[in-house]
Design a protein that fits this description.
Structural class: alpha/beta
Number of helices: 8
Number of strands: 6
CATH architecture of the largest domain: 3-Layer(aba) Sandwich
Number of domains: 2
Helix content: 25-40%
Oligomer: single chain
Order of helices and strands: HEHHHEEEHEEHHH
Distance between the termini: 22 Å
CATH class of the largest domain: Alpha Beta
């Protein structure tokens, strides 16, 4: 942060229609964004603000082939000895959960439904080999599968750059955390004003909306002392 920041570029005002209209199912990808940064979630989902950078452009290219396909939701297997089945780009929704989403890949085997979510980068050097927003997004997919009658107790993150699969177990702790974030995201989606920016967070470095959010400038202007985030 510098001493002289120049003129503050205000965020475009949000129409009051936005929060009122947010009664439809929350997209799973937006729960990921909320877990990453509540302000980013609000700017994207409520304010409908979007800017591309190298990361988002590459991410779209990784998903291009997957999104070009659209398979129907398979029925839960009746025989555990049935051969494994694979479906791509499966769209799911649940009024109970208030969620909707498209699964990159769904593997059905031995009576279990395993969502596989593709990530553009490498496996991160963390103890769990992934970050919380990724685990939360996968857990949302598991919850949707359960709502549709499937047993789902783990999912897979596929990191395209590493060509590696990372298993994520759907533990009670992850489920509770995910449901809590869904509830928080729903409340923020119905708020007119966005949450304050993160403070001195490395997340802001690669964020496509950093030039719109202006975290350092905004925090300096409003005197906000938020908690630093952790890098995804």
């Amino acid at each position: 942060m510098t001493d002289s920041i120049g003129p503050i570029r205000p965020i475009s005002p949000i129409s009051p229609i936005g929060p009122i209209a947010r009664c439809e199912p929350l997209p799973v990808r937006m729960v990921n964004e909320y877990a990453y940064c509540p302000r980013l979630f609000h700017l994207m989902y409520v304010g409908e603000r979007w800017e591309d950078n190298d990361y988002t452009a590459h991410g779209r290219s990784v998903h291009a082939r997957i999104d070009s396909e659209n398979d129907p939701m398979p029925l839960p297997p009746t025989d555990p000895d049935e051969p494994p089945a694979i479906a791509r780009s499966v769209s799911l929704g649940s009024e109970t959960l208030g969620l909707s989403g498209k699964l990159d890949l769904l593997e059905l085997e031995a009576g279990r439904a395993v969502p596989v979510d593709t990530k553009r980068g490498c496996v991160p050097p963390t103890p769990q080999r992934c970050y919380e927003p990724e685990r939360v997004q996968l857990m949302c997919q598991g919850l949707l599968l359960r709502e549709h009658g499937h047993a789902s107790d783990y999912g897979i993150l596929y990191f395209a750059a590493s060509r590696r699969r990372v298993r994520v177990d759907f533990t009670p702790e992850l489920e509770a955390r995910t449901l809590h974030l869904i509830s928080e995201a729903r409340a923020v989606a119905n708020a007119v004003d966005p949450p304050p920016p993160l403070t001195d967070s490395p997340k802001c470095v690669g964020c496509s909306l950093a030039g719109i959010c202006l975290p350092d400038e905004t925090n300096l202007l409003i005197g906000q002392q938020g908690e630093p985030g952790t890098h995804r």
